[in-house]
Automatic annotation (TrEMBL):
All copies of domain PI-PLC Y-box, residue ranges: 328-414
Species, as recorded: Vigna mungo
One GO CC term, this protein: plasma membrane
Any single GO BP term: release of sequestered calcium ion into cytosol
Protein known as: Phosphoinositide phospholipase C
Domain C2: 416-545
Region span, Disordered: 259-286
Length: 563
């Protein structure tokens, strides 16, 4: 017989109609039958497990084939350090499985090949990185830039405009009511926080609305602030992008060369604030045109990734050969182009960089579904990082891959051509490659991170879990558990199968909700996990709030298996 573990944590009182008290005892559940069975099997029926037996469990059940006896001994010591016991019994085994520091669901180290050209990676990319809120009237600041860098974002976008005296540079969303922040302040913060989360290269994309003298000032400012961190390209234009490994600890500039200023520099801003511009009806004078056609050689010299927007037909831009470059398309333009030129887009992204940015009507800083870019090989799927919502959860989930370094190696099918020059087509339904089996056992931590009445004023919460796959259209599946009523420590023990045709691009979305029969169900935590990075076996899965910040205690015990 297995021991039963019921740990009484607290008693919560709920007032009903101001005169009656309802008492609910908060208790932790016992280990699920699957956990008890695994403990019995690997401990060979004994009451405690040795370091060698734990190592066998880690290798055979959890797929941790690189673990050593030293690792298992360390787990034993950390799991029982609080009370000094020497035996690793079912109690400690169960608590080890629920420890989200010791029993993580994802690979925590950089493990992708980082020596390929930058065009072979998805890159964690921000849009209008300086905005604190909406696109029309929020403050501009270096604070959201710092937050993005702390999360591992590797592409920061700055919009550069002359200040009111025309003698310095502001970072501001032009022709809106947003308040500016100085470029110098942004550059200093970027230098300080560029590599706190990841050592791999940081790209600064500049949306440039400057005269040549101010462009020269930008070049001087960037050179002085960044010093040796700033990477200078050896040639005017590259035939192949450098690798992330070769550029560790370096900062790169990506923008349009000065000579292209008049042709394309305002296209994206026009997309974003077209309604304001129609009212403003601003036109450049011949004198302004004459001034702006002069180039700033110091500025041009800093540009590693040459950028541009389509000047003519999109298919011509996609098929242009020669020097590598970055092309920017709005989410709408990409979706439209993919209808007729999907294969050309994928081929373009084999060697060149495609940046996708939000459509201009997203004035509240909402985001789009990132897979519209990723499935066509777009490396820089630019997001408003200051917002929140499911799309941003997907973005955060994708970049939990590869140790959270901000660079995720694209699948081979998005880099290579077939024998007949064919490329990946996300619209074609493919056969199932593998099936992911997900079992949701139990959850804990809400009684620590929330107050007793946060979900329901009269009783403990009624939790359920939504489990979904986000990826190519053929793989999109939504499932959910039953509702567990009046319990801070819900136990579900429910399993779901997810057949996957393109597991390389699939994300597992997990969201806990609290059922409310009278209004919208309350939010209880979420996470998004890249399927290709999932570790098999029992895993402690920490949950995050709606902005993507991790809760201190809230987590689920789950099991992942591939068939």
């Amino acid at each position: 017989m297995f021991e039963e573990f019921h740990f009484t944590m607290a008693t919560h009182n709920y007032k009903v109609f101001s005169c009656f008290n309802r008492k609910f005892t908060v208790t932790e559940p016992e280990p699920p039958p699957d956990v008890q069975k695994a403990f019995s099997e690997f401990s060979e029926g004994a009451s405690s497990m040795s370091a060698d037996q734990l190592l066998q469990f880690l290798a055979e059940h959890q797929g941790e084939v690189n673990c050593t006896v030293s690792d298992s001994e360390q787990i034993l010591q950390q799991s029982r350090k609080e009370d000094g016991e020497t035996g690793f019994d079912l109690h400690y085994f169960f608590h080890f499985l629920q420890d989200s520091d010791l029993n993580v669901p994802l690979k925590s180290q950089v493990h992708h090949d980082m020596n390929a050209p930058m065009s072979h990676y998805f890159i964690y990319t921000g849009h209008n990185s300086y905005l604190t809120g909406n696109q029309l009237s929020s403050d501009c600041s270096d604070v959201p830039i710092i937050k993005a860098l702390q999360r591992g974002v590797r592409v920061i976008e700055l919009d550069l405009w002359p200040n009111s005296d025309k003698d310095d540079i502001d970072v501001v969303h032009g022709r809106t009511l947003t308040t500016p922040v100085s470029l110098l302040q942004c550059l200093k913060s970027i230098k300080e926080y560029a590599f706190v989360k990841s050592q791999y290269p940081l790209v600064i994309t500049l949306e440039d609305h400057l005269t040549p003298d101010l462009q020269a000032k930008v070049a001087k400012m960037a050179t002085q602030v960044f010093g040796e961190l700033l990477y200078y390209p050896q040639t005017d234009s590259l035939m192949e992008f450098p690798s992330p490994e070769s550029l560790k600890g370096r900062i790169l500039i990506s923008t349009k060369p000065p000579k292209e200023f008049l042709e394309s520099s305002e296209k994206e801003s026009a997309d974003e604030v077209s309604s304001l511009r129609e009212n403003a009806n601003e036109q450049r004078t011949d004198n302004e045109v004459s001034i702006l056609t002069k180039s700033a050689p110091e500025y041009k010299r800093l540009i590693t990734i040459h950028a541009g927007k389509p000047k003519g037909e999109i298919q011509d831009e996609l098929k242009a050969a020669g020097k590598v470059r970055r092309l920017s398309l709005s989410e709408q333009a990409l979706e439209k182009a993919s209808e007729s030129y999907g294969a050309d887009i994928v081929r373009f992204t084999h060697n060149n960089i495609l940046r996708v940015y939000p459509k201009g009507t997203r004035l509240t800083s909402s985001n789009y579904k990132p897979h519209i870019g990723w499935t066509y090989g777009a490396q820089m799927v630019a997001f408003n990082m200051q917002g929140h919502g499911k799309s941003l959860w997907y973005m955060q989930g994708m970049f939990r891959s590869n140790g959270g370094c901000g660079y995720v190696k694209k699948p081979d099918f998005l880099i290579q051509k077939g024998p007949h020059d064919e490329v990946f087509d996300p619209k074609i339904a493919l056969p199932v490659k593998k099936t992911l089996k997900v079992k949701v056992y139990l959850g804990k931590g809400w009684s620590s991170d929330f107050s007793p009445s946060d979900f329901d004023s009269y009783s403990p919460p009624d939790f359920y879990v939504k489990v979904c796959i986000v990826g190519v259209p053929a793989d999109m599946i939504k499932k959910k558990t039953s509702v567990i009523s009046n319990n801070w420590f819900p136990v579900w023990n429910e399993e779901f199968d997810f057949p996957l045709t393109v597991p390389e691009l699939a994300l597992l979305r997990v969201e806990v909700r609290e059922e409310d029969k009278h209004q919208k169900d309350d939010f209880g935590g979420q996470t998004c996990l890249p399927v290709s990075e999932l570790k098999s076996g029992f895993r402690s899965v920490p949950l995050y709030d709606e902005k993507g910040d991790k809760y201190k205690s809230v987590k689920l015990l789950m099991r992942f298996q591939f068939r």
